[in-house]
Amino acid sequence: MAGTDLSFVQDLPLTRQAIAFARERHGDQRRDADGAPFLVHPLEVAALLERSHFPDHVVAAAVLHDVLEDTDVDQEELEAQFGPEVCHLVDVVSDDETIEDVEARKDDVRERVRADSSYAAAVFAADKISKVRELRMLLANGKIDAQATETKLRRYGKALDMLEDACPGSRLVEILQFELESLENLPPSRGSAG
Prior knowledge:
The chain has 194 residues and is an all-alpha fold. 66% of the residues lie in helices and 0% in strands. The protein has one domain (7-185): Hypothetical protein af1432 (Orthogonal Bundle). Helix 2 crosses helix 7 and helix 6 packs parallel to helix 8.
C-alpha cells in the first residue's frame, strides 16, 4: 500500500505528499513490536490527528514527526519541502541528539512541547498514544524486559502530566490517559501473542 490510498488522507494534499516523502526516507525500517513497516507508526499518529479534526499541515507534521530523528533528513530539507509550520512542529517534537543523557533529552522535548504555542502538544500526544499501544504489543510478544518497560511507562507518565497541564480537556490527552491506565490495569500476558 502506498499509504496515500488511506481514506483519512483523501482530502489532505500536504499529508499525501508527506506520506510519500516519509515512505521514501524511512525506507525499509521496521517496528520492533510487530515487524510492520515503520511507516505504520507515523500513519497512526496522523490518523489520530485527522480524526480529531486537525488541519492538513498538522497531520502532515505527524507523518513526518520521526524523520529528523530516524533518517538523514535535516531541517533545511524539511522546511524546503513542507514549509516552516510543518518543520517547526517536527522540530519541537524531535529529540535533541546533542543532549547526551537520554532522560535529559526526553525532559527537554517535554519542556519544548509545553512551551510551544503551536499544535506541537497535539502531535506529541498522538505520538505517545501510538507508543503506548506499541508498548502493549512489545509486552505481549515478550520483546521488552521489565526495566525497559518501567522506563517507558515512567516517561509516558511524565508526558501525560505535562500534557494535562498544557492542554487540559484535550481528547488526545484523555485517550493517552486511557491507554496508560488500561496497560497498567489490564496488561497483556507476557509472550501471549504470536
